[in-house]
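[stage:ingest] chain + small molecule (zinc ion)
[stage:ingest] validated
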Amino acid sequence: MRIGAHVDPTDPLAEATARTADTVQFFLSDPQGWKAPQPRADAEQLRTAEVDVYVHAPYVVNVATGNNRIRIPSRKLLLAHAQAATAIGAKGLVVHGGHVNAGDDPASGIENWRKALAYAADSGGFGLPVLIENTAGGENACARRLDALARLWDVIGAYDVGFCLDTCHAHAGGEELLGLVDRVKAITGRVDLVHANNSKDAFDSGRDRHDNLRGGTIEPDLLVAVVRAADAPVIVETPGGADGQSGDIAFLRGQLGSETSAA
Ligand SMILES: [Zn+2]
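[stage:predict] done
[stage:export] tokens:
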């Protein structure tokens, strides 16, 4: 199982080495901004590296919203990121499930997702799997709770999309981690990537504040159980820089290794 971390984008391979990470995730542009990603000077190194690369789309991307001043640029930015991520050999592009505004019909958000995927397909395709990530907050989110995810997947499952399961978001979003992977796979048929994070906040708080795996409000054994059940690459998006994340990676490797040898 490949385990790594979300890192600073300046020199991701050096960050991977500093954490003994098998995989890294990073942003290609300001996560709070609308700037298109620029070509990277280290594209060839990233493409040929032993380390697997994932890209996280900016947080501003919301292809579900009824606000067309956000939805239309979101479509374009998502496609631009997919193409830029493909150029560096990324295995997947992670994007949040998005949400509609209060009072808007959640079904319109699903239809907007379908249109975004149809637009990408008509524009040459993403070039790599786009991994839709569950989110922690909001009452109108497309991928906070599994009932909403099921309605979304009914419509978009036919496109080349995958799923990224974030343990902090699930817990804070109000989904029990026990048995979660089976419930997700019953909907999506797949978990492509796990974001293994503890949560500073309580179950169903709707808040999105990550903590180190042995900190926070989630029993660490539950995080290990999710990672084991998912059997997918893992990224920790936890605090503490290289030291904090190295500790989280070592914890997961230790738990998974000891369970394997004990089994
Ligand atoms: Zn995440």
